[in-house]
Amino acid sequence: MAEAKTPPQPTDSAVRLGLRENWRQFALLILVNAFVGGMVGLERTVVPLLGSEDFKLASTTVIASFIASFGISKAFTNLVSGQLADSWGRKRVLILGWVIGLPVPFLIIWAPSWSWIVSANVLLGISQGFAWSMTVIMKIDLVGPKSRGLAVGLNEFAGYLMVGLTAFLTGWIASETGALRPEPFYLGIGYAVLGLGLSVLLVRDTSEHVRLEAGNHPKVDPVGFKEVFMRTSFRDRNLFAACQAGLVNNLNDGMSWAIFPLFFAARGLGVEPIGVLKAVYPGVWGVMQTITGPLSDRLGRKGLIVWGMWLQAAALFMVAALNGFGWWLGASMLLGLGTAMVYPTLLAAISDVAHPTWRARSLSIYRFWRDLGYAVGALLAGLIGDAFGLAWAIAGVGLLTFLSGVIVAVAMQEAKA
Fold first, then answer.
1. Looking at per-residue confidence, does 5 or 24 come out higher?
2. Residues near 283 by Cβ (< 8 Å), separated by ≥ 6?
3. Using CB atoms within 10 A as the burial measure, which of 190, 197, 356, 366 is most buried?
4. Is 60 exceeded by the pLDDT of residue 56?
5. DSSP characters for 161-217?
6. Alpha-carbon dihedral sign for residues 199, 203, 204, 206
7. CB of 132 within 8 A of CB of 251?
């Protein structure tokens, strides 16, 4: 696809590792990932309300099904994205992600039934599994071992700041127009076109950077996918601790995506203030990762992960127990801060342990477990919400988040980047 326009790839003599040495491509990938994040932000405020208001769905579990479809498809796409990146090249996988994501806003705009929304989210999950995975992996490839936390922090900053901004904009547009669609989703069409165009025309592959870094490590025998999966998921205590924490982190994010708009609406908030609350959480999450990512390079990974999980748990208990926009705004800020402490640090922790020759696969396996949490969280919260009420669903997920932090405190050993 338009390979003739792709800038020439660097030769071995031109390849350097480091943020300063690769700042142009690094900055371009930050911009690309901002558009990737914007595609998720399209759905944070408006889509759950579409389920309850436009499609008249009474079951919280049914409404949450669109997040489950997103999480499952993204998780399994993550699982293969690293293998494809190693065998096919990072850039090609990134472009594939954008091509698959292009129809998503159109499907939501034209959806005559809830099944179309669920189907759109299958495509969105596949798109995110390819595109977001590649922007993370390519930045880690570019900077080398000294600045992984910084690289991941900046990548996730761009993505989740755009999630928050788009969540706010879609809520504001819906409030101004008096309709939940189609106007809020025009943003997504622009994001997809710009992201695809930049990826095709300007992004360069980073395979040479991987080879350069691997040359500075002791040679290892080729490792198969099954071995990498077992090592990442269960056998290595640091990798296991990171995987379960990632799953629970996104479990509570999936719950908030599905439940928070319904919870706040049931307590009298309109679309615009719900959009503000839905924007603050990923907005704080995004911005603070510019601090927590590099901080983990200096202070280590474990403490930030443990305390970040516990801070998230406290924030969820606040949302469930307290009432009023001010309390919920404060809790959303704390939830964003706790997630910012955890999110880039977990990716950096995986990169600390995994050898460059199988790092992409290890990261993809971690992201499989992490993003499976979207489906688990949405469905679990939906079932609890239908049976006991939305406040109990939020508090139950808060308890799981606290226990996940305990597991990290016990199982993870500090490893310097």
1. 24
2. 160, 161, 164, 165, 168, 336
3. 366
4. yes
5. HHHHHHHHHHHHHHHHHT-SSSGGGHHHHHHHHHHHHHHHHT----HHHHHHHHHTS
6. negative
7. no
Nearest 10 degrees: CA dihedral of 314, 320, 324, 326?
A: 20
Q: What phi, psi does 195 have (nearest 5°)?
A: -60, -45
17-210+223-411: CATH architecture? Up-down Bundle (1.20)
Residue 4 has pLDDT above 70, yes or no: no
pLDDT tens digit sequence for 150-201: 888 888 889 888 988 998 899 899 989 988 889 999 999 999 999 999 999 9
Stretch 93-111: mean pLDDT: 95
Bond from prior residue into 48 cis (ω within 30 degrees of 0): no
Classify residue 357 by its DSSP letter.
T
The DSSP string of 299-338 is: H-SHHHHHHHHHHHHHHHHHHHH--SHHHHHHHHHHHHHH
Q: Specify the pLDDT at position 9.
A: 43
Measured CA distances, 377 to 67, 128, 370 (Å): 9, 18, 11
The first and second tokens of residue 278, run together, are 């839905």
pLDDT at 2: 41
